[in-house]
Amino acid sequence: MTYTDDIPFLEEHVNVIPFLAEEGEFYFTLGVKAFRKREFEKAERWLTRAMELAPDDPLYPCQLSILYTETKSFHKANQLLTKVLQEFGDSYVDCYYLIANNYAHLGLFQDAQKNIELYLEKEPEGDFKNEANQLLELLKLYNEELDEEDEDDEWLFDEEDELLVYQESAFYYLEHQEWEKALPVLEEMMTLYPDYIAAKHDYAWALFFSGDEEEAVELEIEWHKQNPNSIHSIVNLATFYYEMGEFERSEGYIEQLQNVYPIHEQQSLKIASALAHTEHFEWAYERFEQLSKAKLKNHMSYFRWYSRTAYQIGLETKAKELWKEGCRRHPFLKQFEHAKNDR
To answer: In residue terms, where are the TPR repeats (predicted)?
Structure first.
């Protein structure tokens, strides 16, 4: 699906090539070409550049949202589309259909139905009329099933698929520091999947940074007593006490992490980030150097804390490169202070 089927491409054989480096259309065209070749990283880079050069053109974020949908980054897609609707109103009614499609992929069927109905109400003869009506019928069936008393037998996703939806939503909110949105998702995860241990520690993290520090610390201390070897608890308590200015307590937990080298990449990232967060930059850098960027490139925190760590130990060029790459992959990262000042 692309918004650009009728957009002419640059002529291959011309005597004079105009300089278009400051025009969004040039980069937009490059982005669409890369998208059609399924070179998604390159396409994202060009489309993001087009948006930077022409922030008032809603076509560019719409196309980038389609790329995000294709790469299953549904939250990122909807963030762009919602912004287009906020800035341009009903001039881009198709956004409602695209948003609904993303919500459906996330399993948020009621939100999907609401947006598909808005689309059909505002554009009953729109380009996506047939697709929208088909999706609406499916969504009505799904939502009816979810309302039945014996819905446990009617789930369209199995438990593993359902957990993945929760994980993606929680991950998105935590990475973007949207604590108030993360908390209810994590509460549901703790109830529905009590064996998924990470949810409760992520809940304590969101609780702490949303302002309820005392309860977050109390919860984490209790869980640490139950499992003294929990990396989640040790990382959280080290960070919590550091943020509260209780540096000796923080240091006690940091010492417990010095000889811990987890198998899982995400746990290793937690330790590296905690070391950076608590200003143990030499140790942090050693850990970051051992991580696989290929496995963690979707983690905004990887680029945030790695770049800060590199800067703090004097590797300014590397820090800038990491920060630049992080901002390219995760434009939201720009809202944090630069690596050298970020905390």
So the answer is: 24-57
All structural domains of the chain, each given as residue ranges with its CATH number in brackets, are 1-92 (1.25.40.10), 93-156 (no CATH), 166-335 (1.25.40.10)
Average pLDDT, stretch 242-267? 87
Q: State the residue for tokens 């949207």.
A: 178
Which of 102, 111, 38 lies closest to 74 in space, CA to CA?
Answer: 102
Q: Work out the pLDDT band at 142, boundaries 50, 70, 90.
A: low
| Of 248-252, 256-260, 330-334, highest mean pLDDT | 248-252
Q: Which residues of 152-188 are buried (b: 16+ CB within 10 A; e: fewer)?
A: eeeeeeeeeeebebbbbbbbbbbbbeebebbbebbee
Which residues lie closer than 8 Å to 258 by C-beta, 6 or more apart?
A: 283
CB half-sphere exposure, 323, CA atoms < 13 A: 20
For residue 167, what are its two tokens? 């994980």
Please enumerate in sequence order all residues whose Cβ is within 8 A of that of 88, keeping only pairs 6 or more positions apart, or say none. Answer: 58
> Does the predicted TM-score (pTM) go above 0.85?
no
Q: Could you report how far apart the first and last alpha carbons of the chain are, in Å?
A: 40
Token duo for residue 218 = 């109390």
The residue type at 184: P
Highest mean pLDDT among 136-140, 269-273, 292-296: 269-273
Report residue 47 as tokens: 């489309």
DSSP codes joined into one string, 322-341: HHHHHHHH-GGGGGSPPTTT
SS3 for 78? Answer: helix
Q: Say which residues have a Cβ less than 8 Å from residue 285's Cβ, sequence separation at least 6.
A: 309, 310, 313, 315
Cα 147 from chain centroid (whole Å): 30
Question: What per-residue confidence (pLDDT) applies to 136?
Answer: 84
Of 95, 63, 64, residue with least CA distance to 82 = 95
Residue 262 one-letter amino acid: P
145 pLDDT band, cuts 50/70/90, is: low
| Strand residue runs (E) in 231-295 | none
